[in-house]
């Protein structure tokens, strides 16, 4: 019985890596299986022409450490593009596309820490909290990238 319980826990925590056949333009989104705002953020990306593949994880702390997300910049999901660029939390698709069109030197992605009301995946109709998007830099550093002031800017 203990072995069965251990194997069930392991299957939740250590889901298989995304398929080796993943398209080079597909974002791998690491998330907990039961996170629904992540599901809505993925739908936001797909609606905006960004292809995704989901990799379920029970321990998101390990994922964030593996991809270099700085302390204090964590959101509930981590998206990786081409094994090179990281998008942490509820980053709007518009800003992801802007970043990828011209990545600032020394950066490896963007982050929206926490779960701000009104961000993609967190919009509940009428509730909106302006929020900052940060540029991820090497060595655990980050700096301001953009501010989202209105719900339509999060689209």
Q: Report mean pLDDT, rounded to a whole number.
A: 84
The secondary structure category is alpha/beta
The domain count comes to: 1
Q: Strand order of the main beta sheet, please?
A: 2-1-3-4-5-6-7
> Strand tally, please?
7
Any idea what the shape is? globular
The largest pleated sheet is described as: 7 strands, mixed
Percentage of residues in strands = 25-35%
**How far is the first residue's CA from the last residue's CA?**
48 Å
Count of DSSP H/I helices: 4
Q: Mind telling me the C-alpha Rg? A: 16 Å
Q: Element order, helices and strands? A: HEHEHEEHEEE
Low-confidence stretches: 1-16
Describe this structure in words.
This protein is of the alpha/beta class and 155 residues long. It has one domain. 26% of the residues lie in helices and 25% in strands. The protein has helices at residues 2-13, 36-47, 60-66, 93-101; strands at 27-31, 52-56, 78-81, 85-89, 107-112, 131-137, 142-148. A seven-stranded mixed beta sheet has the order 2-1-3-4-5-6-7, with helices on both faces. The longest helix has 12 residues, at 2-13. Keywords: Signal. Residues 1-15 form the signal peptide.
């Amino acid at each position: 019985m203990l072995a069965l319980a251990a194997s069930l826990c392991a299957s939740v925590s250590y889901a298989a890596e995304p398929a080796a056949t993943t398209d080079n333009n597909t974002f791998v989104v690491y998330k907990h299986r039961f996170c629904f705002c992540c599901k809505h953020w993925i739908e936001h990306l797909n609606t905006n022409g960004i292809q995704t593949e989901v990799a379920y994880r029970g321990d998101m702390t390990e994922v964030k450490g593996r991809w270099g997300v700085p302390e204090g910049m964590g959101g509930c999901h981590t998206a990786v593009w081409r094994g090179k660029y990281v998008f942490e939390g509820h980053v709007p698709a518009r800003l992801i596309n802007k970043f990828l069109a011209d990545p600032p030197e020394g950066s490896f992605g963007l982050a929206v820490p926490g779960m701000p009301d009104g961000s993609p995946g967190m919009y509940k109709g009428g509730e909106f909290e302006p929020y900052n998007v940060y540029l991820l830099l090497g060595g655990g550093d980050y700096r301001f990238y953009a501010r989202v002031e209105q719900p339509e800017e999060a689209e």
